[in-house]
């Protein structure tokens, strides 16, 4: 570790290793850009160059101005020289090396003012880059400040004491008063309130919190007093995971940035060789003076410096990811941001994505031999250990009807994509979709009209039966999100050519939801492997495809798509880890926002790269024409960098989705 820090120091940079528990303290000590050593040296260089020009124009003592120009070069060029020399030793020539050679060459020719200008303006450009990255990463710093450093701990003897959040352990009880920020993730043990979860999910509507409900660090308790049991250590909270993931994403290189880096790797040595040829060949072979040609070589080095080109992509990526994080959108890296900008088609899971994901039993039909409460009791007994939304709905129906689930359950078996079966009170039962009963050769002819009726209404049919007969029908409906239709329309406005819904439900149910939401195509009765195949087919047909799901049940399809988008993943560690893009809340409109932001990012990256290259070409032509000088070269390089930075920073501003 010490060797890594030493190598960083040799390049003119500083680094440190941050332990997970100390990360919050360490990051709070980070130095602001304007107090950075490099920034201060740039300021000193500016003072010296200003004094130098004052003496040059207002005094007869030109040698004094030369002294201040030299001081300006030394102060502003210290870190440039350090990085440039290290680059030369490691045979990886970079822009710092080009500027170092240009400054030394200017001094060798006696052009002290121009040499000082080269160093100062290049330092100013570097300072602007530091400022830009500092500004675009402030969203992460703001996330860090969301959660309090201290918590009100309730001890086992009932005493309340304030302790640092780092000292909290899982199982501790903390008190959250009205208006306070929640310091750590936990479960409500006692109390009732509404909590503003906007810092985590991006949704401004307060969420009801009562016993058994999860709360997140950084969110704001509004009215009531809450007693919360700590469920995660400070370094494992959802807020910490979000912050770490956004930082990692900003550090990752996007494909366009990797291309620029590869380009610069070969470009810089070529420029150095070309400058050597221009500075030596004409004087040696054509008998002309050295000075004018060496000056042209220096101008070439300065103009050819790829500062603007190198910064063109990272400033855009970092700005866009910072923008998204403020909206409760976690983009896991530049590659996913760029891929999202190229999306042509989107596949949606139905349950929990286009619908609220919490179905309820709306109709029950008795077929034979049982009364309504008996049917509910048997079905709920089969599903009482289920985590499937339909199973939970049946159990909740039993709770609502105050039906006790006291029957013994044996030989339970989950049938993936079909239902469940088991022995309830000594009798074999199966509970599931129509496919399950068809596969068991149970005759459904007398029930088909009823089944069709429910399915045309967009309801999911669940059958309860014994080995050779159906005893009851449950109709379960999952409410469509009120923003689903609006979100699908926003995607079309953002340029999405195809929207498809993938579901395990019956075609009639799928059709009803698709028509209500404006989805162009639907595929029904799909098992997880069928969804995977459907996504592959979409990729073959449309190229770039996004899959939007819950991040857990749809993991194979999410992984197969060009971009996997999981929504509603606040507090869901698995979804945070597996998705390429994670929406902390349940707002489907964020999908369109993400796509629009990604496309803006791609446009701005292309603008930056094109502008950087065009400026270089123009000034290279002017150099060979004998028109450009060192001043023009420096202004062209620094000016292009500033324009590229400002253009990239436009991505920090929010915009409505556009095509």
From TrEMBL:
<feature type="transmembrane region" description="Helical">
    <location>
        <begin position="609"/>
        <end position="628"/>
    </location>
</feature>
<keyword id="KW-0479">Metal-binding</keyword>
<dbReference type="InterPro" id="IPR027256">
    <property type="entry name" value="P-typ_ATPase_IB"/>
</dbReference>
<keyword id="KW-0812">Transmembrane</keyword>
<dbReference type="InterPro" id="IPR051014">
    <property type="entry name" value="Cation_Transport_ATPase_IB"/>
</dbReference>
<dbReference type="GO" id="GO:0008551">
    <property type="term" value="F:P-type cadmium transporter activity"/>
</dbReference>
<dbReference type="GO" id="GO:0016887">
    <property type="term" value="F:ATP hydrolysis activity"/>
</dbReference>
<dbReference type="InterPro" id="IPR018303">
    <property type="entry name" value="ATPase_P-typ_P_site"/>
</dbReference>
<dbReference type="InterPro" id="IPR008250">
    <property type="entry name" value="ATPase_P-typ_transduc_dom_A_sf"/>
</dbReference>
<feature type="transmembrane region" description="Helical">
    <location>
        <begin position="64"/>
        <end position="81"/>
    </location>
</feature>
<dbReference type="GO" id="GO:0005886">
    <property type="term" value="C:plasma membrane"/>
</dbReference>
<dbReference type="GO" id="GO:0005524">
    <property type="term" value="F:ATP binding"/>
</dbReference>
<dbReference type="InterPro" id="IPR001757">
    <property type="entry name" value="P_typ_ATPase"/>
</dbReference>
<dbReference type="InterPro" id="IPR044492">
    <property type="entry name" value="P_typ_ATPase_HD_dom"/>
</dbReference>
<keyword id="KW-1133">Transmembrane helix</keyword>
<keyword id="KW-1003">Cell membrane</keyword>
<feature type="transmembrane region" description="Helical">
    <location>
        <begin position="266"/>
        <end position="286"/>
    </location>
</feature>
<feature type="domain" description="P-type ATPase A">
    <location>
        <begin position="146"/>
        <end position="247"/>
    </location>
</feature>
<keyword id="KW-0472">Membrane</keyword>
<dbReference type="InterPro" id="IPR023299">
    <property type="entry name" value="ATPase_P-typ_cyto_dom_N"/>
</dbReference>
<feature type="transmembrane region" description="Helical">
    <location>
        <begin position="298"/>
        <end position="322"/>
    </location>
</feature>
<comment type="similarity">
    <text>Belongs to the cation transport ATPase (P-type) (TC 3.A.3) family. Type IB subfamily.</text>
</comment>
<dbReference type="InterPro" id="IPR059000">
    <property type="entry name" value="ATPase_P-type_domA"/>
</dbReference>
<dbReference type="Pfam" id="PF00122">
    <property type="entry name" value="E1-E2_ATPase"/>
</dbReference>
<feature type="transmembrane region" description="Helical">
    <location>
        <begin position="634"/>
        <end position="652"/>
    </location>
</feature>
<dbReference type="Pfam" id="PF00702">
    <property type="entry name" value="Hydrolase"/>
</dbReference>
<protein>
    <recommendedName>
        <fullName>Cd(2+)-exporting ATPase</fullName>
        <ecNumber>7.2.2.21</ecNumber>
    </recommendedName>
</protein>
<keyword id="KW-0547">Nucleotide-binding</keyword>
<dbReference type="InterPro" id="IPR023214">
    <property type="entry name" value="HAD_sf"/>
</dbReference>
<dbReference type="GO" id="GO:0046872">
    <property type="term" value="F:metal ion binding"/>
</dbReference>
<feature type="transmembrane region" description="Helical">
    <location>
        <begin position="39"/>
        <end position="58"/>
    </location>
</feature>
<keyword id="KW-0104">Cadmium</keyword>
<keyword id="KW-0067">ATP-binding</keyword>
<dbReference type="InterPro" id="IPR023298">
    <property type="entry name" value="ATPase_P-typ_TM_dom_sf"/>
</dbReference>
<keyword id="KW-1278">Translocase</keyword>
<dbReference type="InterPro" id="IPR036412">
    <property type="entry name" value="HAD-like_sf"/>
</dbReference>
């Amino acid at each position: 570790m010490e060797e890594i820090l030493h190598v960083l120091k040799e390049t003119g940079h500083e680094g440190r290793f941050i332990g997970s528990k100390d990360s919050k303290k360490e990051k709070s000590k980070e130095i602001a850009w304007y107090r950075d050593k490099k920034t201060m040296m740039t300021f000193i260089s500016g003072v010296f160059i200003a004094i130098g020009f004052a003496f040059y124009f207002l005094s007869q003592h030109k040698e004094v101005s030369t002294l201040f120009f030299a001081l300006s070069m030394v102060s502003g060029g210290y870190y440039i020289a350090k990085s440039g020399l290290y680059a030369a030793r490691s045979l990886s020539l970079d822009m710092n090396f080009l500027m170092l050679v240009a400054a030394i060459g200017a001094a060798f020719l006696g052009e002290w003012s121009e040499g000082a200008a080269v160093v100062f303006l290049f330092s100013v450009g570097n300072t602007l880059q530091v400022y830009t990255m500092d500004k675009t990463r402030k969203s992460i710093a703001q996330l860090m400040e969301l959660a309090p450093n201290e918590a009100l701990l309730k001890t086992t003897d009932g005493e309340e004491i304030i302790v640092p959040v780092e000292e909290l352990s899982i199982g501790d009880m903390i008190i959250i008063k009205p208006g306070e920020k929640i310091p750590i993730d936990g479960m409500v043990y006692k109390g009732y309130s509404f909590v503003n979860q906007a810092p985590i999910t991006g949704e401004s509507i307060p969420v009801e919190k009562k016993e058994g409900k999860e709360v997140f660090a950084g969110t704001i308790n509004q009215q009531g007093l809450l007693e919360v049991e700590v469920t995660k250590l400070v370094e494992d909270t959802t807020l910490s995971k979000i912050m770490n993931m956004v930082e990692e994403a900003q550090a990752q290189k996007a494909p366009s940035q990797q291309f620029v880096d590869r380009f610069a790797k070969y470009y810089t040595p070529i420029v150095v060789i070309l400058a050597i040829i221009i500075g030596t060949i004409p004087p040696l072979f054509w008998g002309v003076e050295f000075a004018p040609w060496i000056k042209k070589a220096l101008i070439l080095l300065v103009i050819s410096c790829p500062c603007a080109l190198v910064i063109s992509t990272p400033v855009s990526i970092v700005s866009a990811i910072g923008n998204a994080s403020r909206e409760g959108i976690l983009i896991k890296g530049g590659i996913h941001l760029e891929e999202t900008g190229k999306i042509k088609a989107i596949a949606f899971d139905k349950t929990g994505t286009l619908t609220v994901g919490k179905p309820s039993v709306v109709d029950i039909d008795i077929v034979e031999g049982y009364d309504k409460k008996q049917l509910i009791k048997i079905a709920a007994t089969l599903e009482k250990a289920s985590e499937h939304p339909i199973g939970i709905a049946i159990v909740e129906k039993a709770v609502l009807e105050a039906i006790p689930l006291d029957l013994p359950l044996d030989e339970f078996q989950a049938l993936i994509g079909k239902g469940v079966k088991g022995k309830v009170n000594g009798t074999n039962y199966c509970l599931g979709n129509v496919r399950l009963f068809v596969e068991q050769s149970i005759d459904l002819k007398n029930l088909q009209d009823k089944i069709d009726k429910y399915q045309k209404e967009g309801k999911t049919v669940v059958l309860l039966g014994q080995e050779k007969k159906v005893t009851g029908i449950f109709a379960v409906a999952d409410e469509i999100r009120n923003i689903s239709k609006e979100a699908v329309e926003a995607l079309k406005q953002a340029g999405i050519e195809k929207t498809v819904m993938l579901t395990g439900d019956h075609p009639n149910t799928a059709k009803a939801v698709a028509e209500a939401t404006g989805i162009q195509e639907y595929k029904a009765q799909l098992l997880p492997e069928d969804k995977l195949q459907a996504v592959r087919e979409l990729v073959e047909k449309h190229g770039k495809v996004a899959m939007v799901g819950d991040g857990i049940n749809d993991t194979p399809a999410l992984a197969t798509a060009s971009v996997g988008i999981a929504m509603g993943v606040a507090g869901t560690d698995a979804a945070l880890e597996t998705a390429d893009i994670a929406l902390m809340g349940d707002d489907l409109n964020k999908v369109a926002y993400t796509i629009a932001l990604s496309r803006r990012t791609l446009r701005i990256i292309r603008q930056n790269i094109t502008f950087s290259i065009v400026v270089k070409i123009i000034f290279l032509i002017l150099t060979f024409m004998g028109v450009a000088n060192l001043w023009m070269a420096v202004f062209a390089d620094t000016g292009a960098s500033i324009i590229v930075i400002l253009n990239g920073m436009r991505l920090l501003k929010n915009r409505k989705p556009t095509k």
